[in-house]
C-alpha cells in the first residue's frame, strides 16, 4: 500500500511538471491590431482570465501578458480570448479588465469569464458597454445572498423579440443554453450576423488527498487516509467529481465487562484495518467557504480484524486470547459532511462515513489539485 501511494504521488508530480511546461500553438493581437503567432503555455482557464505566458517560438523567452497589454489571444483550435472591461457585481462592483473566452459573436457578443468555483458571462454590443451576467448566489445553509440578474438583462435586450422573451423564465445558466439564446437573439435583431464559437471544456484530471480521524477516549482512535485521482467536467458540473485511488482505514475499540460465569473482569481490544481501492463520486452542494458534501461509491480491498481478550479471574490470574481474521472485502462507501475552505486548495472536513462499517465522526483536512 505504501508503494502504491508513492507511485501515485510520482505520477501526479510527473503529470504536473508535464502540464506546466507544455505550450500550444496560438497567437496574440496587440492593441494596434498587429497579430503575432507563437506559443501559449497550457494553464487552466481561470488563470488565463488574469494572464497568459507567451513566447514567439521554441527558443524564445516567455513573457507574461495581461488584458492591459494585449487586445486578444487565441489557439489553433479556434478558442479565442478578448480583453473585456466589466463591473463585477460578485466582488463589490469593482471594475475589472480581464480576458473573456469568446463563445458567440454577432450583434451581441457573448463571453464566458472563467472562475475556479463558478463561471460568469459578459454580453455586449457595439452600442453599449456590456452586461455582467450572474445567477443566484447562495451562502452556507442555502441562504440566498445575491439574486441573479441574467434573466432580467436578457429580458431587457430581447424586448423587441417577443417569442424569445417567453423562453427566459425556463432558461438555464450554462454556456450552451446562453449561447443558443443569444444566437437566436442576434438572428432576431440582425439576421445573418451571428457566429457561434462554442468549444466544450475538456475534463480536468487532478489529485485529491484526505486525512482525518478522531480519538474517542483511551484505546479508541480511528484514522482514514486517502489519495485519489479526480476527474471533473467543467462543461457539465464543476461541483461533481469522479474519483479512484487508494485508501487506508484503521478503527479501534476497547470494551470492559464482567463474565459472571467465571467471575472474571474482561478487557477487549479490537483493531480493524482496511486497505482498499475506492471508486466514488463527490458532490459539493455549494462553492463558497462552507460546502456541504455527499460521497458515494464502492471500495474493495483487504480487511483485517484482530481482537485481543484479557480475562482476570478471581485468583488474580490473567488469561489472554487473540482472534484474527483476514479477508477480501467489497463495501459500500458513503459519507455526508461539510468542507470549510481554509486556503485556496485546502479544506477542513467534518464527516460521517460508512466504509465496511459505520464510523464515528471524522475530522480532518482535504486538498484538491
Architecture overview:
The protein is mainly beta and 369 residues long. It is built from five helices and 22 strands. Strands 1, 2, 3, 4, 5, 6, 7, 8, 9, 10 and 13 form an eleven-stranded antiparallel sheet that branches. Strands 14-15-16-17-18-19-20-22 form an eight-stranded antiparallel beta barrel. The protein has a two-stranded antiparallel ribbon with strand order 11-12. A hairpin with a 5-residue loop joins strand 17 and strand 18 (290-312). The two termini are 22 Å apart. The model is unreliable at 1-20 (pLDDT under 50).
Number of helices: 5
Q: Work out the helicity level.
A: 10-25%
Largest sheet: 11 strands, antiparallel
Average pLDDT metric: 84
Count of DSSP strands:
22
Strand content: over 45%
Rg measurement, Å:
28 Å
Overall outline: elongated
Low-confidence stretches: 1-20
SSE sequence, one letter per element:
HEEHEEEEEEEEEEHHHEEEEEEEEEE
Give the structural class: mainly beta
N-C termini distance: 22 Å
